[in-house]
Description:
Elements: H1 2-13, H2 17-28, H3 33-39, H4 41-44, H5 49-79, H6 84-92, H7 96-103, H8 113-119, H9 123-131, H10 137-142, H11 154-170, H12 173-186, E1 188-193, E2 209-213, H13 219-230, E3 234-239, H14 242-253, H15 259-308, E4 318-322, E5 329-334, E6 340-346, H16 355-368, E7 373-377, H17 382-390, E8 399-403, H18 408-412, H19 415-420, H20 426-439, H21 441-445, H22 464-482, E9 484-485, H23 491-495, H24 502-515, H25 532-538, E10 542-543, H26 561-570, H27 575-580, H28 582-586, H29 600-611, E11 641-650, E12 653-657, E13 664-667, E14 688-697, E15 702-706, H30 749-761
Parallel strand pairs: 4-7, 7-8, 9-10, 13-15
Antiparallel strand pairs: 1-2, 1-3, 4-5, 5-6, 11-12, 11-14, 12-13, 14-15
Amino acid sequence: MAEVYAGIIAGETGFNLKQVAATLSLLQEGATVPFIARYRKEVTGSLDEVAIATIRDRATQLEELDKRRESILKSLEEQGVLTPELKEKVENAETMSRLEDIYLPYKPKRRTKATIAREKGLEPLATLIFEQKEKNPQAAAEAFIDAEKGVASTEEALEGARHIIAEWVNENAEVRSKVRQLFLKEAIVRSRVITGKEEEGSKYRDYFDWEEPITKVPSHRMLAMRRGEKEMILMLDIAPDEVSAINLLDDQFVTASNAAAEQVKIAVRDAYKRLLKPSMETEVRLHTKKQADEEAIRVFADNLRELLLASPLGQKRVLALDPGFRTGCKLVCLDEQGKLLQNETIYPNEPQRKIGESAALLYELCEKWNIEAIAIGNGTASRETERFVRSLKLPNNPLVVMVNESGASIYSASDVAREEFPTQDITVRGAVSIGRRLMDPLAELVKIDAKSIGVGQYQHDVDQSQLKNSLDETVMSCVNRVGVELNTASKQLLTYVSGLGPQLAQNIIDFRNENGPFRDRDSLKKVPRLGAKAFEQAAGFLRIQNAKNPLDKSAVHPERYNIVSRMAADVNCTIDELMQNKEKRQAIDLKKYVSNEVGLPTLQDILSELEKPGRDPRKEYEAFSFADEVHEIDDLKVGMKLPGIVTNVTNFGAFVDIGVHQDGLVHISHLADRYVGNPADVVSVQQKVEVTVMEVDVARRRIALSMKKDPFGAAEPKEPRGKSDDSKKGGKRQEGGRPNKKEEEPQDMNAMLQSLKNKFRN
Length: 762
């Protein structure tokens, strides 16, 4: 079956058949996507993770299709209706919808109007009328009047016959396919407010009287309308022009111009309104929901990847502050490995304002622990605390950094945090998370449920299983791309290493605790239940900095150590010297080491790794600070140009933190001076940007920003849009005192920007 799948996938994707077949074979053997992409390039023709995942996912779909095909064939055989012709149709069905259309007439169903009509003996009349040769169906119907069977009149007989015809129309596979395409191409999405729900559902007011072609509805708008429907604020209808749909059916089924044909027309209209339209609308709803889910999940995964791969400060001694007013600022000191050294509480802000005592303690701790950087959470009192810290002349002149604390409170109350710090309260745990997040965002963020990090759109509306799988895969990709230090990694970080998982990660931690640090990669084989396959998948992504073999700190896989040994011997040096001497590496002729198993792609990777063993692919850390003159939303003035950090990217724009406890929105129309179809093409999470303040609504805590060079004078970029923007969620408060990242587009953004432009032009 894998060969058949390989042929189908190769034809659909354009990948070479050999590449697809080899990839499927590796996946069936239990290889992970990161492992295949990194260490089996010769086998797959250097396919990347995206291509490998595409092949895997399509193979899963084809497998599900075949399972359903087998189930249907079995059902048809049990019913005794499986003819050679029907079997051929089932076996040749290429999509799930086509398969279900073929099976529909034979699918066990509840008692319908057509079933009741058949029980009354009206199927022969239905057949007679459907042939459209009978010129007087009224007269023909008289023969079917039977009081005992419940047919009291010719009209009742004709009505029953039409119910049977309507079912035939509905169950015609070819017609269903045509109507489905009509819905997918020409349906209009209509949204109306439920009478009396106008005030309760005010946040959906843009959808109170909305319509848009289905082909143009963006994913976030579809999810917004579906949410409004779920909350019983909106009524949603998805259908093409009814006349077009019925004309399509008439062309298919009305073959004459007589009284019988008129009966067929009535049946066709009944079939569409009562059976086909509801069925197709349900299918299209599922189809558009799936598309919207996939797009929303893609956006979330892309944002998460950028966040996880954010620049790490590295192994520095850090003092971390979780700011606050009344309860003070929780303070922790961490060593280079993130170990908690000391924790205190200071009160530099209102209402206590113990500035002198707080400054003295900070000075003492910075000197005592040789602090190199200070991390300040960006929640409540963050800017006030930052201003206080920056005003001090602390020992070693530590770097002061504002750190995004989204999810820190989730971590502090988690089982992971309780296991790490069983004797500390949640405020200490949260401060530790803030400090560690500065040192290594990836290592710390893997401890938090990705959905709690706040970098998506409509995350609670999409398929939760699909979302989890996608985010887990994204985390795994990032962890394996960066690599993991075996002797210091947490269980959570090890869990995402290729080939491991929670149980083996825990076994590694237990083995490390009992036997001390790993001396070499080969020692992994001594870990209980970590077999040869798991070792093969994981070893290349695990690093041991002080191992006897210098290759153990690199991404060179142990299965290729012998090649490096040969290289070193051929240029008369040790492996260590080869890694340090550029001239020695340049003297190596890679073609000499090509074999049936190892090709140039792997050899080039090895040579590159020898140059910078265990290199971190993440960018070097760059210090960032907000504008000194801006601390609260009241400090903002239209026209200000400010530095900011992108905190979330959605399909309708990007949210930017400018240091006022409320992220501003750069609408998609203001991301650049050119037309932008996809905001992710312009900005990414954690990117440092400069923005212009366009509008400030203090009462509703809304900030409109622009990244255009001339935001007040440049013409709007041309882009296809609906007739209004999306509604905005209420600004609920979340942990740390920060408002939630907005998942929906502010409903009056375009109007806000346009009125502002007019004001400036005047």
